[in-house]
């Protein structure tokens, strides 16, 4: 990997990012977080997310009008420190407090949790939306539950729009929880990411194999499978995702590259996923195709479906609402 | 690679792209081109670019208000057919004709050239801006001249803004030629792209080597060099680029990923490139960091500098002008 000859390459990247997008964000250091330059005065609640680095644009590329008030990056694939979360939350809390959007990983849960306790002690209202969308980790036996992956992008977009309209903390938390409940994902990879520590692949795969259900930190899937034609693979992935969702007849569709996947590949997947959803009687009403939640430079992709129905037409409005971040602009 | 089991995977990707961004573009087939849905009525000249696929978002992701009126994609790494160029030009020519923005490759030159002859025969005014920014191919002996790479993004952004203000064909051609003359690039890779034909790497590199001066179709560099620390590498690249540019004290800087390069890496490069330019007395006044002109999934990056000076403050205005394409939004 092309990284500066120092352990501070994440901080260097953040400084570069903040300069490149200085019209949208400011970088706070000691502790580190990225904050929206011009907070929306209509917001009653600050939206704060975060997690390990290596998944960019998530989350720092999603800070700005219409989405996050602050993002708290950890080192590569490592949780941010709770002091970062606490300070970012204090800086961006609205009159109705702060909402934490947390992907379901132990380190993130612990650090956001400690920060939430301190905020509560300070008298700052705080609530949490836990994103756990990855059906590859669905198991009654797994105490940690499903991992949080691509659905985070959708949650942050919808909650950002709701927060812009002045929604309160309890309403935002309820909305976020419902969006998560109606969102599921699955990811596959044909080649590992490059380890930022060793410079070597994080795991080995034969050319004719794929990881079915890979995680965004290189967590191996429960199944390494012979590589099927893409049509079959996408059909299976969509079937798996839909089988874990409540029924509905329309959806938001995120086709996400894991880092080393080309736009041509992603749009092949998108077209096949649309067709597969159509066979399930589900129309795609909003979509996002690109590298949104990568695992460094992994070759692979994920499919996330958020199920809509007649009662949730408002989500479409939130999806289409304006946003102006470094990466997602509507 | 994850491609549909058909030779039509580029067309499939284009159909998916056009559906995903149906608010911005329309896809024409027979022959294939992507067109802006809502042309700017102020424009007197249509802007048409194109080239091989595998470099997305270039060019289809740059169609829309503020940038291109149409983009003409070929197959992967192959020129579009002249009939595509001709039809796209006929469809988008303004009262003052059409400007072709062409990267300097033989196939592209020939096909845009044939289309231009047909347009001239039809009485449609046509001019061409040839983008040839890659200093790795600078050689008095090379009859084909410098390759066209990342500077194309900058040319298309500046010309789009000028066209929106009603500039005529000759003025746009002159501006484009001057932007090219003041833009130079260099690219490096630590690993090849994956061949879309064989599924294998296009070339082999040892872990401690890089291609210094690689092309965006996997053209080997004249030099494979031992891999230096990133600080040294970026310093050398910036020095090479600046030595091929007219003098100036401010610049636009594009740090472009070649496909399999992470955001963290690109922002490490960006920070180091800013520092290197500062040592040359050049301030970065506008920047773009991301995967803008990839070579499929190659691991590497390019640096493009467009030199500004007091006489070219208007270029800053063009750079900052609004644009609303699938990928570049300002």
Automatic annotation (TrEMBL), chains A, B:
GO terms for cellular component: cytosol. InterPro entries: DhaK_dom (IPR004006), Dihydroxyacetone_Kinase (IPR050861). Residues 5-328 form the DhaK domain. PROSITE patterns: DHAK (PS51481). Keywords: Kinase, Transferase. It holds the Pfam family Dak1. GO terms for molecular function: glycerone kinase activity. GO terms for biological process: glycerol catabolic process. PANTHER family: TRIOKINASE/FMN CYCLASE, TRIOKINASE_FMN CYCLASE. This is Dihydroxyacetone kinase subunit DhaK. It comes from Phytohabitans suffuscus. The gene is dhaK_2.
């Amino acid at each position: 990997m092309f990284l500066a000859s120092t352990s501070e390459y994440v901080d260097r990247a953040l400084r570069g990012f903040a300069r490149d997008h200085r019209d949208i964000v400011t970088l706070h250091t000691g502790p580190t977080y990225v904050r929206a330059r011009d907070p929306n005065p209509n917001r009653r609640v600050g939206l704060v997310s975060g997690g390990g680095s290596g998944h960019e644009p998530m989350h720092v590329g999603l800070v700005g009008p219409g989405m996050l008030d602050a993002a708290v990056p950890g080192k590569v694939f490592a949780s941010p420190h709770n002091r970062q979360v606490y300070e970012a939350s204090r800086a961006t809390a609205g009159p109705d407090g702060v909402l934490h959007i947390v992907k379901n990983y132990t380190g993130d849960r612990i650090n956001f949790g400690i920060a939430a306790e301190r905020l509560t002690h300070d008298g700052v209202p705080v609530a949490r939306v836990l994103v756990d969308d990855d059906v590859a980790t669905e198991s009654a036996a797994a105490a940690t539950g499903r991992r949080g992956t691509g659905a985070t992008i959708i949650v942050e977009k919808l909650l950002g729009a709701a927060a812009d309209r002045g929604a309160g903390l309890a309403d935002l938390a309820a909305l976020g929880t419902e969006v998560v409940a109606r969102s599921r994902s699955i990811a596959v990879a044909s080649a590992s990411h490059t380890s930022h520590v060793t410079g070597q692949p994080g795991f080995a795969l034969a050319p004719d194999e794929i990881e079915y259900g890979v995680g965004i930190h290189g967590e191996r899937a429960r199944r390494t499978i012979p590589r099927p034609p893409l049509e079959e693979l996408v059909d299976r992935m969509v079937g798996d995702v839909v089988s874990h969702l409540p029924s509905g007849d329309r959806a938001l569709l995120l086709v996400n590259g894991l880092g080393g996947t080309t736009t041509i590949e992603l749009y092949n997947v998108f077209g096949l996923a649309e067709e597969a959803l159509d066979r399930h009687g589900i129309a795609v009403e909003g979509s996002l195709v690109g590298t949104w939640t990568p695992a460094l430079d992994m070759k692979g992709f994920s499919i996330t479906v958020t199920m809509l129905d007649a009662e949730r037409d408002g989500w479409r409005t939130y999806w289409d609402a304006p946003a102006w971040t470094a990466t997602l602009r509507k």
